[in-house]
């Protein structure tokens, strides 16, 4: 209901349904990790539930926004909410980068006899620390046969993602200036670039498993490689879907030069994903 200058959303069933669907998906994911393919139906059902709730919940938000129910206070609430969400994503990836740096800076040198905990070298006295770790200390674990050159597919994907941030910024400027044809064109280009990134990463994953021996079982290098690039790839897929929805809304005449926070929020998310990839390119592929 709207009263005065403060908007109080009506009671909604979507938060509790989102929690239940997300919980089901996590239970299914755990079942897949423990029991294998037998847990796939539960995980898939949970995932479909999450997608359905998101679609219906966002539909209601769009209807409320188009109905003129939101005021400046609600706009600030959305901005704060999106800002804290992106901060949570920063901490999410910070944990994974932290794991990578910990292994490279502390754990491997300790296993090679260096540092305050160099006594760990007693576990595998013949181990020599190096990164990328092609020869894990435990001989029962096979490391990757070789690693990717950063100047081939990873560089192409970097150029694609950086370019997509530029095209998205141009689209945003067009929206703010009321040039909707420019917004439609450059946002379409951004979505296509996102799809190109996803396709190339799929090719890279195939090459990793089929030719490079980089798998989730290939020691700490394989585990951190897929942990970081996999979660980032998931964020690119989500971001591309969000931008595609924004594109549909632009074609339907939604947003104005002064009121388009849905578009802005999508742009914030995409630029964040772009910055994370630059970190990945430098610390997973180059250094």
UniProtKB/TrEMBL annotation:
**Can the keyword rRNA-binding be found in this entry's annotation?**
no
What is its EC class? Answer: translocase
What subcellular compartments does it reside in? Answer: Cell membrane; Membrane
Highest taxon of source: Bacteria
Biological processes, Gene Ontology terms: aerobic electron transport chain
A Pfam family name for this chain?
COX3
- The Heme-copper oxidase subunit III family profile domain sits at 2-287
Q: Identify its membrane topology class.
A: Multi-pass membrane protein
Q: EC number(s) for this protein?
A: 7.1.1.9
Sorted UniProt keywords: Membrane, Translocase, Transmembrane, Transmembrane helix
**Which is one Gene Ontology cellular component term of this protein?**
plasma membrane
> Where does the signal sequence lie?
none
Q: What is its main location?
A: membrane
The UniProt similarity line reads: Belongs to the cytochrome c oxidase subunit 3 family.
**Matching PANTHER family:** CYTOCHROME C OXIDASE SUBUNIT 3, CYTOCHROME C OXIDASE SUBUNIT III
Q: What is this protein called?
A: cytochrome-c oxidase
């Amino acid at each position: 209901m709207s009263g005065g200058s403060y908007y109080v959303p009506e009671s909604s069933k979507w938060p509790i349904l989102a929690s239940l669907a997300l919980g089901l998906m996590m239970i299914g994911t755990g079942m897949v990790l423990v029991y294998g393919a037998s847990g796939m139906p539960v995980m898939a059902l949970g995932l479909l539930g999450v997608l359905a709730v998101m679609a219906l919940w966002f539909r209601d938000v769009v209807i409320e926004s188009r109905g003129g129910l939101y005021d400046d206070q609600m706009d600030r609430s959305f901005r704060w909410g999106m800002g804290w969400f992106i901060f949570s994503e920063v901490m999410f990836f910070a944990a994974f980068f932290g794991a990578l740096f910990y292994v490279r800076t502390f754990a491997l040198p300790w296993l090679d006899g260096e540092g305050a905990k160099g006594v760990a070298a007693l576990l595998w006295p013949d181990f020599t620390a190096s990164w990328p770790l092609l020869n894990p200390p435990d001989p029962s674990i096979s490391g990757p046969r070789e690693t990717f050159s950063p100047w081939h597919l990873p560089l192409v994907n970097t150029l694609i993602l950086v370019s997509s941030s530029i095209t998205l910024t141009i689209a945003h400027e067009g929206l703010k200036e009321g040039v909707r044809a420019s917004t439609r064109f450059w946002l379409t280009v951004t979505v296509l670039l996102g799809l190109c990134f996803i396709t190339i990463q799929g090719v890279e994953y195939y090459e990793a498993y089929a030719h490079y021996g980089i798998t989730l079982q290939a020691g700490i290098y394989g585990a951190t490689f897929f942990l970081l690039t996999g979660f980032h790839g998931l964020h690119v897929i989500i971001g591309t879907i969000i931008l595609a929805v924004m594109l549909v809304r632009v074609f339907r005449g939604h947003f104005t030069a002064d009121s388009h926070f849905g578009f802005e929020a999508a742009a914030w998310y995409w630029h964040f994903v772009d910055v994370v990839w630059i970190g990945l390119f430098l610390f997973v592929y180059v250094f």
